[in-house]
């Protein structure tokens, strides 16, 4: 896998020509930017900026996104900045305008076929596909236990996607004696080479037992069957080493810059 070629393919198909990541959202081009726009429970933000964006144009583009956020009444808006984006000081300009950086993530990619092999689960643990609201509630509960964060937004997104575009999402929950201990989902992007792995997390006492790897393998098989060549992950510092051992390659880093409106 040639890293530069795959990064260029990712930039072109998943960012510059991005598709909405769920029902009820739209992708808009705003001058040198591409952004996604939806409701307050959806992800709203900039996914791509032109490599020709210069310092003067960057400040104007940032101001336009702040105005856009205010006009729609969105509580927050994200600019997803990649390490190779231009100008080189774009992160500093976003901070100066009131955007707050969250922890950086590593953009990782692997050939889907590489990860489709069987993985043994611990005794008493089963994987259950999430196909309805009840399953989504278990998934959100596992997410809350794994990350210590509110799973309400995830629950809303998964229920909405299952109801309106179930063919584009694969959601899973791992149960240990009936209790949710891990969950994850895959976003399938029709017409592209990529499938995104999102939200994989396992509660602390069940980590290191192969559940995370089993969730990856399950989703890799489905992605490969649907014709997607690559799996893509925006990985946290916790997940990145695990994924690297599985065969993922780093294409760079990405940092979410979040603008929150004053209430």
TrEMBL record:
Pfam families reported for this sequence: Acetyltransf_1
Domain annotation N-acetyltransferase: ranges: 125-263
InterPro entries: Acyl_CoA_acyltransferase (IPR016181), GNAT_dom (IPR000182)
Residue ranges of the TM segments: none
Name of the featured protein: Acetyltransferase
């Amino acid at each position: 896998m040639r890293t530069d070629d795959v990064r260029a393919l990712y930039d072109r198909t998943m960012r510059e020509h991005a598709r909405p990541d769920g029902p009820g959202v739209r992708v808009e081009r705003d001058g040198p930017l591409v952004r996604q726009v939806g409701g307050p429970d959806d992800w709203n933000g900039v996914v791509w900026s032109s490599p020709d964006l210069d310092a003067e144009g960057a400040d104007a583009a940032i101001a336009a996104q702040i105005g856009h956020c205010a006009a729609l009444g969105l509580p927050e808006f994200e600019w997803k900045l990649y390490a190779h984006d231009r100008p080189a000081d774009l992160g500093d300009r976003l901070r100066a305008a009131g955007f707050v950086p969250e922890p950086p993530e590593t953009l990782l990619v692997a050939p889907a076929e590489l990860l489709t092999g069987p993985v043994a689960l611990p005794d008493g643990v089963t994987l259950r596909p999430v196909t309805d609201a009840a399953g989504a509630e278990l998934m959100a509960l596992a997410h809350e236990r794994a990350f210590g964060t509110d799973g309400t937004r995830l629950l809303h997104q998964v229920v909405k996607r299952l109801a309106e575009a179930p063919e584009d999402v694969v959601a899973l929950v791992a149960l240990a004696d009936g209790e949710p201990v891990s969950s994850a989902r895959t976003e399938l992007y029709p017409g592209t080479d990529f499938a995104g792995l999102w939200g994989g997390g396992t509660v602390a006492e069940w980590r290191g037992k192969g559940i995370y790897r089993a969730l990856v393998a399950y989703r890799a098989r489905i992605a490969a069957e649907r014709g997607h060549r690559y799996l893509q992950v925006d990985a946290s510092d916790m997940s990145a080493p695990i994924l690297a051992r599985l065969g993922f390659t780093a294409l760079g880093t990405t940092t979410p810059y979040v603008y929150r409106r004053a209430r």
